[in-house]
Amino acid sequence: MLNLMTETCLEAATFRILVVDDFEPWRHAIRSTLQDHPDLRIVGEATNGIEALQQAEELKPDLILLDISLPVLNGIEVGRRMHELVPDAKIIFVTSNVDKDVADAALTNGAYGYILKADGKSELLRAINAVIQGEKVVSKRLKR
Q1: What pLDDT score does 9 carry?
Q2: So what's the pLDDT on residue 110?
Q3: Number of domains making up the chain
Q4: Residue 113 lies in a domain
Q5: Taking the alpha carbons of 20, 62, 94, 126 in that order, is the dihedral positive or negative?
Q6: For residue 52, is it within any domain?
Q7: pLDDT tens across 5-29, in order?
Q8: What's the burial of 1, exposed, middle or buried (CB within 10 Å: 0-12/13-18/19+)?
Q9: Which ranges in 6-119 belong to alpha helices (H)?
C-alpha cells in the first residue's frame, strides 16, 4: 500500500479532490483507485469546463484532477481560471494528450502535474502524493 503522506500529516489531513473528465468510465476508474485511501476524498465530479469552474468555486477542493479535452471549455483554459477561483488548489492534468508542448503549457500555467491516462493506474497515486508534498510530476513516458 502506498504511503500517501508522512505519518505526522496522515492523522489529521484529508485532501478534497474534484475530478473533471467527460468520460464516465475514467471517473469511475479514479474513484476505484482512490477508494482505499481515506485521506483522499472525492468531493465532486464535473463533465465540462464550465461545470468544473462552478464546482471548484463552490467546493474549494485541495486538488483537481483535470482532463485537457473537455466540452464547452478546454482544460488548459479551465486550469488558468481555476487559479483565480481557488488559488490554493493544486492541479494535476490527467489526459490522453501526449503532446509535450501541451504538457509544457499546462505546467507553465501553474499545474503541478501532467499524467497520461494510459499510465494512470501505475502513476496516479504516486503523482498525487508528490503534488501533496509540493512537487511537480510528469508521466514517465513524457520524460523520454
Answers
A1: 42
A2: 86
A3: 1
A4: yes
A5: negative
A6: yes
A7: 444 344 447 999 999 999 999 999 9
A8: exposed
A9: 7-10, 24-34, 49-59, 75-85, 100-108
